[in-house]
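Appendix B. One record, verbatim.
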Amino acid sequence: MRITLIALLCCAGWLQAAFESGGVSIDFSLYGPKKVQPAGENLLAHGSFEGAEVTLSGGSGPGQWRGHAHVHGATNVPELASFRQEVLTKSQRRIVSENPAAGQNCAAILTPETLRELFKPLPMISNKISQFVAITPSEQASKYRLSFQTRGRHYQAPILSTLSVFVAMDKKSPETGRYAQTKETAQHRFTLDNEWQTHSIELLVPPGSERLDFTFALYGLGECYLDEIALVAQELSSGIEVRLHPAQELDQLYALGEGLPGSLNFTFQCEGELQRKALQLLVALPPGFTLVDQRDLNPLLDSTTLPDGGTLCRFNLQRFPKVAFKDCYLHHAAAILVKSSHTASDRLYPAQYWLEDGDWQGTKKNFNFQIISAVQAERPKRFRSAAMVGHEFTYTAGGAGNQA
């Protein structure tokens, strides 16, 4: 009998952390963007905000910073008209010399907290600077790294308070002369700190893209300072990457309920042209852990006993469509169910996973299991995540459903 289990599937990283199936212990002190210093030519102009000619109110041409504030909501509401004018008047985007990360200057995005008392309930406010960079179209995908430094603070307000970085990838239509996106706009959110912090975002740009449009938007009320913004071309990675969600982005710890199975979800990304002959996912389980079931898209090929008493499981990935290897989306994940005979404790049990395809072997990646006490509660007959409805994992054996 085939049993359908509902997977908690979310595309965005912050939702994955909140809704991960099976249980994950999160130590956010270990979570953060890669701190990478740019190496190579900086394709983004005036990212250090130095020189008397640099301004944040330039035109729409390449290499010029432009900025504006925006009140989100219906434009035909008369009561908001005067408040919009207050936001435009009081919000600021300027170059300052106080405490830059490097050099003499940095950019300041300022949305004062006095706006909180001018309109209630306070609508969403964003204050942003933008710049687009022209790039040479390529027949193949290309890769860039955007790095920047931030500091600042958020004022208390009953609306979203964050720094969001948007990256749009565009191509001009020869028929209309207008730009159209070649990929969905990437959005990354950051929390501001009083001290300077370095962030880095890797961008995989589709073939034919002609420009990248970057926007740094402060949502809510607060102060945001930006400096040392750089865009540097990168080499595409070879082979196919695999990662365990969301443990790879967090603390590499998967918490498994005592006596209960848990779902491990693996996603993939191939930056270059996808080539696979007999692609396999290998998972090395520690002693005391057993495979209960697997998704029908990643059938088990074989399992062997390791010298330490653990189990090495091989799964076939040839059934996955090509689109599954373009971005790390959970609805294209390979999923397995595992269970442990260990009791709850603070002990960590190391495990590994990696990819193989013929004579090629990907990098082995480590994570840890920890057994925690199970919470006794009535299991709902059917549950779907509020974040994403409609994606289900179909497992192969009836036993999995009886134990979940």
